[in-house]
Amino acid sequence: MKYRTLGLSQIIVSEIGFGGWQLANPVWGMQDADEALRMVQVARDAGCNFFDTAPGYSEGRSEDLLGRALKNVRGQVVLCSKFGHTAEGETNFDIAALRPAVAASLRRLQTDYLDVLLVHNPPAALMDGNRTALYGELERLKKEGWLRCYGVSLDSGCDLAQVVATTGSGVIEVLFNAFHQEPLTAFAGAQKKGVGLIAKVPLDSGWLSGKYRSDSRFDGVRDRWTPEVITRRAALVKQFADLVPPGLSLSHAALRYVLAQPELSTVIPGAKSTGQVLDNIAAGNAALLPETVRAIRALWERELKMAPLPW
């Protein structure tokens, strides 16, 4: 495992992190608690130290399981959780809800501080620090020792640039993968300000693993895709596969493309089994050739820059 620094925070994170959305989550196919705990242990044994979660992931079970798995090695891991979507399935970004929400996350995670707290996909008004007092309250929590740094989980380069320019955020989690590269336009500005970047959805919800086709059928969170979007994604996957060197899996190529961006600190693929955890981590064993990186960038420029996919 290789490691990078999370912006100017001096927090050292594994290049391949652990995305906790799928952990014991019925939306993705329920795992039992023992299997979920094994996944976390396997990740730890392979050198992963960055664990991303949220209260809204599986009604708090993701945080609870990570707390159980990591409480005895708390000083050796980096815990990132979120605010805005509750364990009860509600959305609440009110400043008055912040401290109680963080306190509840700390209880579930069995810790007295968070390394990172992210405002979880907030509405547009909360992306602008000049229009809200929320970031001032986050700064107070940081000074009081509740968290080491804070920021936002978001989807676009425009929002990324605004958060960097108008808030004291030290970390931003951003949707970035071979099919969603628009945020790259704001990476340099974030790096200049010393903001650490976390890449989420690096496999495009599974498409960049190569396991879906135009005739695939979806339920749960993936039923958001229309037949037209499915057909287009399948065609793009074929184009992506043509760029992948022989002997390299699509998922490893996709993760290595994300890691080829020097401004990024870590990437957080999800997993539903210990085998997937190990496969994700193995992607960090080597880098893509520069010509492959350029070809994947060119695919996005040609096919997606002016006609982006919905996530």
Structure report:
The chain has helices at 33-45, 61-70, 95-109, 134-143, 157-166, 187-192, 227-243, 250-259, 274-282, 290-303; strands at residues 3-5, 12-14, 18-19, 50-52, 78-83, 114-120, 147-154, 171-175, 196-200, 264-267. With 311 residues, the protein is an alpha/beta fold. The two termini are 29 Å apart. The protein has one domain (3-206, 252-290): TIM Barrel, CATH 3.20.20.100. α2 (61-70) packs across α3 (95-109). The mean pLDDT is 96. β3, α1 (33-45) and β4 (50-52) form a beta-alpha-beta unit. The protein has ten helices and ten strands. The strands form two sheets. The chain has an eight-stranded parallel sheet with strand order 3-4-5-6-7-8-9-10. A two-stranded antiparallel sheet has the order 1-2.
Sequence stretches where pLDDT stays below 50 over 5 or more residues = none
The CATH H-level superfamily is: NADP-dependent oxidoreductase domain
Give the termini distance in whole angstroms: 29 Å
Helical percentage: 25-40%
- If classified by CATH, what would the architecture be? Alpha-Beta Barrel
Average pLDDT, to the nearest integer? 96
Count of DSSP helices?
10
Q: Give the number of domains.
A: 1
CATH class: Alpha Beta
- The count of DSSP E runs of length 2 or more, i.e. the number of strands, is 10
Class from helix and strand fractions: alpha/beta
Indicate the overall shape: globular
Q: Tell me about the biggest sheet?
A: 8 strands, parallel
| Order of SSEs | EEEHEHEHEHEHEHEHHEHH
